[in-house]
Amino acid sequence: MTKELIAATFAFALLLPAAASAMDADGDGMVSMDEFQAAMPDAAEGTFEAADTDGDGMLNADEVAAAQESGLIPA
Fold this sequence. Notes:
Number of helices: 5
Structural class: mainly alpha
Shape: globular
Strand content: 5-15%
Strand order of the largest sheet: 1-2
Mean pLDDT: 83
CATH class: Mainly Alpha
Helix content: 40-55%
CATH topology: Recoverin, domain 1
CATH superfamily: EF-hand
Largest sheet: 2 strands, antiparallel
Order of helices and strands: HHEHHEH
Number of strands: 2
């Protein structure tokens, strides 16, 4: 990994809400359905899809923050 990529990855991780960071098992800055289910096995069916407002199959930091603010997922 280049120093620039490491720095960018670290900077992005700092911007992730704590919940997203905790769910992001592979450290790519996004939360997949598998990562979400592993972190929140008791979440109601459809929670991930409701949080995934852009429909790309991944949760980004903004989607996680919005889901937390709306009470969809715990902060």
